[in-house]
Structure formats: structure tokens, C-alpha cells
Amino acid sequence: MGECNSVTGDVQSLINISGFPPEDEKHLCQLSQHLAPRIPALTDRFYERLLADERTRIHEEIEAAAQTEGYTIGTCTRVLMHLLDICQYLIDSAYEAERMRRLTAATGMRPALLENLINLRN
């Protein structure tokens, strides 16, 4: 939907990461003056729920590490997310290389030709 006029940074961040459809984003923009003061409490409740569920308790470990090293939990979470992105990139790259190796072996075609054929479909 884009930026809302006169919306606080916290509300704009919520709108940007929410994944809500445009109609819901419009409602969030309209309610921003009432929503903004409640964001800290909503964030606290969100983390309380994460910490209460053992499947998402890693946040507790991130928070402990952040406090030990003097960083904010947001900084540590951001670094962890970048690290996970890099790991996913490496996994995807290895998968793609193995796929191309197998296609080349099975068809006898050179990788460049296979790439061109794959790109024709796009």
C-alpha cells in the first residue's frame, strides 16, 4: 500500500511487516493514533507468548546473549536473521549446483545450454 501520512515509525513498521491486505493496512493507518501508544505493550505480550512456547523459546536465548554482550534483542535478532538468510542461500546454491550436475550427466547437455532452456520458460 505504501506509506501512510502522519503515522508513527512503529505503526509504519507494523504495517510494512504485517503482510496484511491493503484494506487492513488502510484501517491500521486510520487507527494509528490509537494504535501507536499500545505498540510497546503489544510487543511485550508478543514476546511473552514466544517465551511461553518451547518451540519459539530461542528468543529467550537471544535475549540472554544480547544482555550479556550489551546489545539490544533487536540487533541480535537482526544478525541471526541475516545469518539464517546466508545459510538458506548456501543451501539453495548447493541444491542448484547438484541439480545442474545431475541434469548435465543425464542429458549430456552443457550447463550453459540447460540454463538457456530453463530461462526460456521464464
Question: How does this model look, in words?
Answer:
The chain is an all-alpha fold. Helices cover 78% and strands 0% of the residues. It has 2 domains: 1-56, no CATH class; 74-122. The protein contains 7 helices and no strands. The radius of gyration is 22 Å and the shape is flat. Pfam families: Protoglobin. It comes from Acidithiobacillus ferridurans.
Task: Map the helices and strands.
Blueprint: H1 9-18, H2 22-30, H3 32-35, H4 39-52, H5 58-69, H6 73-107, H7 111-121
> What's the pLDDT, averaged over the residues?
81
Low-confidence sequence ranges? none
* Tally of individual helices: 7
What's the SSE pattern? HHHHHHH
In summary, what is this structure?
The chain is an all-alpha fold. The chain is built from seven helices and no strands. InterPro entries: Globin-sensor_dom, Globin/Proto.
